[in-house]
Amino acid sequence: MAVLLVLVFSCTQKTVDDRITGNTTNGTDLVRDAFTVIPFDTTDITALVPLGNLNPPAHTFPADHMYFYCFTNQVSLNIKSPGHVTIFRITRIRYDAGAPNERVDYSIAMGSNKSYLYWSHVSQLSPRLLAAVNNFATAKCEKPYATGGTYFEPCYQELSLTATPGEVLGIAKTKNGWAGIDFGAVVNGTGTNPLDFFDAAARAQLERKLGRYDGKVKRTIQPLHGESMQDIVTTAMGNWYRTGMARQPEDNHIALVKDNIDPTKQAFSVGNNLTGLPSGVYYFNPQNSGYINRHFAEVKADGNTYCYTLGIPGFPFPGNSFLPATSIIIRMENGTTLSLEKRNCDCNCVPYLFSSTKATYNR
After folding, report:
1. What one-character DSSP code corresponds to residue 92?
2. Would the pTM of this model clear 0.85, i.e. be above it?
3. Which of 102, 107, 101 is nearest to 122 (CA)?
4. pLDDT tens digits for 149-177?
5. C-alpha span between 327 and 166 (Å, rounded)
6. Architecture per CATH, 2-207
7. pLDDT at residue 3 in the model
């Protein structure tokens, strides 16, 4: 589990290339089924983590991109162009700039600002890409921000650089025996399934890798690529914003969603702003009746309060936090408002009454 947290922890509240729209008109829109080359050699890929991964507080909401995991004894792995692409933006991200632990990596966006494929956490750019950005001398920099306990300073260089299928565009350096990158696609400002833009042969190879970070548990339930946006209107299912808090970063909020490897399991993904409960992922087995562990999609503004256990003992998926003798109660006040509170007893403690520590969330 520690291996997963190391890679995912470095992600921003929303992947940098997903947040920066830019004004460029360079590039060519993505075409479905067009790409033929997988970024890493398939023999080096241990797993491809589906959309919807949870890693609060920075990723309190289900991630709208995937993650490549490569457990390897090599020093680094080449990252290859997926096809004939236009690289229209390269972003440099400095983490904790000026601090002794400062580090730098890169994002590469391919396509156009309307639709593009991207990789993030690229350790090093190829010599051709490095020359093209000219040390980011004319780059545009965003105001630094913090999420998940890390400060981010992104600067992005707009350009128009064509690449050919299989061309090496960068490397992922190995750390503690693993290497990897974020892998996503954006269409009209919304994250989507990046596998849609690969041909049938490449897509089939990638789908065989979808599952837990260590490759030992596969996702077998459709859609295999996972789900990031899970909101179901007028129900408790989906992303919730703490009343009175800014919507970004995600640290202050909460998600009531499905697991991205085994979607028959549901979870509270908790940021940093719920009284008495550490940030974490708390799974349970959803029920289709009663008031305990009720399926989120079946919780509506019906005047009832529902209780949930926190964590599944022995559940071997990343982020699972088990807290015995603890529970969460929730009530939908209306179609867009949710009341929620952590309690220091399990769901056998009745009645389910809110106290002064109740938190309120909105869509």
Report:
1. E
2. yes
3. 107
4. 778 889 999 999 999 999 999 999 999 99
5. 51
6. Distorted Sandwich (2.70)
7. 38
